[in-house]
Amino acid sequence: MLRVSLREISAALKEGRVSPTELCQRCLSFIKATKFLNAYITIAEDTALKQAEESEERYRRGQILGDLDGIPVAVKDNFNTAGIETTCASNMLKGYIPPYSATVVQKLLDQGAVLLGKTNLDEFAMGSGSTDGIFGPVRNPWSYSRQYREKSVQNSHTENEDSNWLVTGGSSGGSAAAVSSFTCFAALGSDTGGSTRNPAAHCGVVGLKPTYGLISRHGLIPLVNSMDVPGILTRCVDDAAIVLGVLAGHDPKDSTTVQDPFKPFELTSFIDASKLCIGIPKEYHAPGLSSETLALWSKAADLFENAGAKVIEVSLPHTRYSIICYHVLCTAEVASNMARFDGLEYGHRSSMDKSTEVMYAATRREGFNDVVRGRILSGNYFLLKQNYETYFIKAQKVRRLIANDFVNVFRNGIDVLLTPTTLSDTIPYVEFIKEDNRTRSAQDDIFTQAANMAGLPAITVPTALSEKGLPIGLQFIGRAFQEQQLLTVAKWFENQVKFPMIQLQGMMDHGHTVCRHQKSAFFS
Amino acid sequence: MAASILRRSLLTPRCRAGDVAALHSGPSRRRAQAPGPIASGRRAANSPAGERGVAPWVAVVGLEIHAQISSNSKLFSGSQVQFAAPPNSLVSFFDASLPGTLPALNRRCVEAAVMTGLALNCSINKKSLFDRKHYFYADLPAGYQITQQRLPVAVNGSLSYSLCVGRKKNQMVTRTVRIKQIQLEQDSGKSLHDDIRSQTLIDLNRAGVGLMEVVMEPEMSSGEEAAAAVRELQLILQTLGSSQAIMAEGQLRVDANVSVHHPGEAYGVRTEVKNINSARFLARAIDYEIQRQIKELENGGTVMNETRAFDFKLGCTIPMRDKEGKQDYRFMPEPNLPPLILYDTKSLPANTNHQQVVNIDWIRERLPDLPSVRRVKLVEQYGILPEHSFTLLNEDGLMEFFESVVRQTQMNPKKVIGWILNDMLGYLKQHNLKVKESPVSSLFLADLLNLLERGTISSSAAKQVMEIKKGNQKVLNKLIGLVQRTTRGRVDPVLVKQILEKRLSQ
Questions:
Q1: Do B190 and B327 belong to one domain?
Q2: Does residue B364 lie within any of the structural domains?
Q3: Are A188 and A245 in contact (CB under 8 A)?
Q4: What's its EC (chain B) (predicted)?
Q5: SS3 for B432?
Q6: DSSP letter, residue B470
Q7: Which end of chain A is more exposed for a tag (fewer CB within 10 A), N or C?
Q8: B123: exposed, middle or buried (C-beta count within 10 Å: 0-12, 13-18, 19+)?
Q9: Which residues contact B273 (CB under 8 A, 6 or more apart)?
């Protein structure tokens, strides 16, 4: 029952085949059974059950609030949740219970969704592995899938089970793992440089980064204000559209949201591919792109072409400056945003209190990890008067050029761009930590982060399994505020590729029959 | 609710009054003194008394004035603005910088800044930007202040002000100082340093209140000029209602940049005098600093580029121990606020929601008469002296009082003004009363002046009635004596007393 889509479970709830309480309890026990994944930082059992009961009452009276009523969801632990601890996986906010909820969280709750808990992440969402938070790394559910196990046993007989587990990608790895391991039906992530799409791709789920300004950031603890967007992680594109319909729209509390009203949409299964123009950015043939991913990307392009779509190679010439530019802009905003964590109003406060300055310094040293402190230092360096022009202003100009690259491509008739989401499938944790956070982030954000620079919507769709039996996702980037078109294309693609469902065995409840294993029709 | 999440901050000491002030005065510190030629030859020459006849010194004074915007709510949050409310009772989540909160610009504050800009002959920027200015301080919860460093809302204005010059101070001259810019910015909270218990208490009620920073070019040359300019600005703000501009409540805070040099030579090193919290001390603080710099230089010393505070008890400026020199504010665009776009009637897009836009022309059409215009009107309409028109406007409610008396009496306004300025205002000043607290109502004064005008009573009798009205009972007996004399003792003095008392208490 937990393995179905949000849409399907919503129908089951409406038809009375399952009750919200029962559903919530099942999810909660599944969360406990998969605790070793470390997907959740906080499990909000009591409030979730209360919300489920209230939902049940609404179903009984026939007065449900919306499509999400009674549906268990999870939220990344960098969204404020009133009354529920919100930590950003940092000592700085450990124990912090916010007095208000983020607008997106409130919108979910207003629709009757049941909030199961807060998901794990890299500290303050700074990372691409979900490995650098104080609560430890998130384990990729695919580590325990039959698909991966069978292959890895073939490859190596010596590795013990507990050392070759895989990273989820990040920074919204907890949310991706939660959706992928069937402990919830949708999860919120945040996406600043790819933090929703990267783990979604590695965990074989759909990850949507909406257009900047479409969804309120109020209550999302910021990483980079000018690029952050709440992200949506679901098991299929249709579900992402449903959640988007709930979350999108102007928020007076976020002045960067657009005023235009947003009309929720349903996706059609049919598209007239002959009217579609898909762009393949040549600069995305980046060094480090695995041959498998490259082959899959090109197969996907063929798929569109064979269906009658125009597939055109396009150029985004400034792509190669994107990562370095992002580094400057990101750290500068980080340095600024983190200034508020001084131990006075909330959060961690050091016991060293010889003077205010000593207290500040000790609080921040104790509260932030090396990654956060490193970014604060570089950001402050870039913002110094003598460096501002050379770094920050220049990076802003480059950002404009990157954004204009997309403008030009879309002006020339391209509807959506098709790219890889990640360089390759995911890797074991022991491999991942051989490189530092900065190097990893630079590598892993390479295909995703330009969309944040340009504010464009992008979605990763799980496409096929690698030779190792691990998911590979491909990314579609759309025109600003054209989510409907983007998701329609993504849904069509999803229907074509028939990505296999994860077969979780052994580790979780054996009582449930392992789901139907649809053999991929196209990418087998 | 927000207050409860704020721990009453218990910080260890750093209890320097100056330090607090340095932060309160916001981004003014680092602005360079404008280079360029001295504006005109009208600069006052200063030389300390008793010095030999060396080349005279010229002082250059520039002002940065923070005016608190009169608004019900703060610049970027819905918290109420109120003076002397219980500590931390007016603090929203945003004001306390709770993570994830975002600024939402208060339209009223924008309108107040536009209004002020127009009144100060500024060009209003149709597009202005917000920036973050970073520094760590306990009463700045976000670690940065949102201000307008790059592109402020109003630029290139001017302010004309008048002052009395000449040996007898009886000659009115009008001068003009250019306004460099007006920027919108957030106020900080307040730190209260408790030396005895070695702690600092933080009150965030003021944190996030909207300020207009008015930057005047360094074109003044004395404390007196600066004081006159500030007084005129204060009147303008109060007339507009864009700020209550009460210095005692910190609604108008003045920092002065002061330097001295010999005419024809380059500008001297400037100091910044902060902490000038009253109109009374403004001129004194600046003049003291001018004299101090001259003495310093004449004694072969140098003037340091430093921040000094005015100690009103000692009547002098003292250096503030600060690390300002090394401070780098790491300015950055505020990413959570789109550019502030203003419209005029021409550029106003069709079908706009008027609640969503600010129309400069609409505000311009509704500007009230500014003090300068009112003064001209008073002089023209009533034939009074220009300096009298200044006095009428300088005292809150005095102009209205004067006009009310004039309306109700046949006496020539030129004579009325004498009664008001000499007899009534003198008394009020002496007793530290405001016009509105005057025991003599405009109706009463008008009646009295009518009696005088008709010859019913003499001028001295009228003055005595005024005295009684002001509470001087001894004069009553004189008045009774007057009645007795006039009636040659034909009336009962007790009855006279009763009648007089009854009439006077009306």
A1: yes
A2: no
A3: no
A4: 6.3.5.-
A5: coil
A6: T
A7: C
A8: exposed
A9: B255, B256, B257, B258, B285, B286, B289, B307, B308, B309, B310, B317
Distances (CA, A) of B123 to A300, B264, B360: 57, 32, 10
Rounded distance, CA A460 to CA A497, Å?
A: 13
- A259 lies within 8 A of chain B by CB: yes
* pTM given for the model: 0.89
Does the annotation mark A274 as catalytic?
no
B102: chain A residues, CB-CB within 8 Å: 217-218, 253-256
| A298 catalytically annotated | no
For A492, residues 6+ apart whose C-beta sits below 8 A from its C-beta are A269, A271, A273
Residues B181 and B79 in one domain: yes
The two tokens of residue A187 are 């999860």
Instruction: Establish if A344 touches chain B: CB-CB under 8 angstroms.
Output: yes
Angle at B462 between CA B461 and CA B465, to 5 degrees: 90
* CA-wise closest residue to B312 among B333, B352, B282: B282
B112/chain A closest Cα distance in angstroms: 20
Nearest to B303 by CA among B255, B261, B254: B261
Q: Are residues B68 and B139 in the same domain?
A: yes
The verdict on whether A156 is a catalytic residue reads no
* Nearest CA-CA distance, residue B504 and chain A, Å: 60
Q: Does residue B392 share a domain with residue B303?
A: no
CB A342 within 8 A of CB A363: yes
Pairing assessment for the beta strands A416-420 and A277-281 based on DSSP bridges: parallel
Residues B273 and B131 in one domain: yes
* CATH 3.90.1300.10 corresponds to the domain A9-276+424-441+452-497: yes
Listed in sequence order, the residues at least 6 apart from B160 whose beta carbon sits closer than 8 Å to its beta carbon are B174, B175, B176, B232, B372
Q: What is the pLDDT of residues B225-254, one digit of tens each?
A: 999 999 999 999 999 999 999 998 999 999
**Interchain pair B132, A336: CB under 8 A:** yes
Contact yes or no for A202/A139 (Cβ under 8 A): no
Range of the domain at B291: 58-333
Contact B261, B60 (CB under 8 A): yes
Give me the interface pTM, i.e. the ipTM.
Answer: 0.94
Closest among B70, B177, B181 to B124, alpha carbons compared: B181
* C-alpha distances out from residue B215 to B155, B177, B218, B227, B363, Å: 9, 10, 9, 15, 22
Q: What is the pLDDT of residues B464-474, one digit of tens each?
A: 777 777 666 66
Taking CA–CA distances from B134, the nearest residue in chain A reads A336
B38 and B282 Cβ atoms separated by less than 8 Å: no
Contact of A111 with A246, CB cutoff 8 Å: yes
Cross-chain CB nearest to A340 (options B99, B202, B356)? B99
- Report the candidate in B368, B433, B450, B449 with the shortest Cα–Cα distance to residue B398: B433
Nearest to A220 by CA among A257, A246, A183: A257
Q: What average pLDDT does the segment A22-29 reach?
A: 97
Q: Do B5 and A217 touch (CB under 8 A)?
A: no
For B437, phi then psi, to 5°, come to -95, 5
| CB-CB neighbors (< 8 A) of B332 in chain A | 332-333, 336, 383, 392
Q: What is the pLDDT of residue B41?
A: 37
Q: Which two tokens stand for residue A436?
A: 């530092």
Residues B329 and B208 in one domain: yes
- pLDDT at residue A510 tops 70: no
3-state SS class at B61: strand
Domain boundaries, chain A: 9-276+424-441+452-497
Tell me the per-residue pLDDT of A438-456, one tens digit each, with 9 for 90 and over: 888 888 889 999 999 999 9
Distance CA B444, CA B446 (A): 5
**Do the Cβ atoms of B12 and A345 come within 8 Å?**
no
Active-site annotation holder among A101, A143, A171, A180? A171
**What's the total number of domains in chain B?**
2
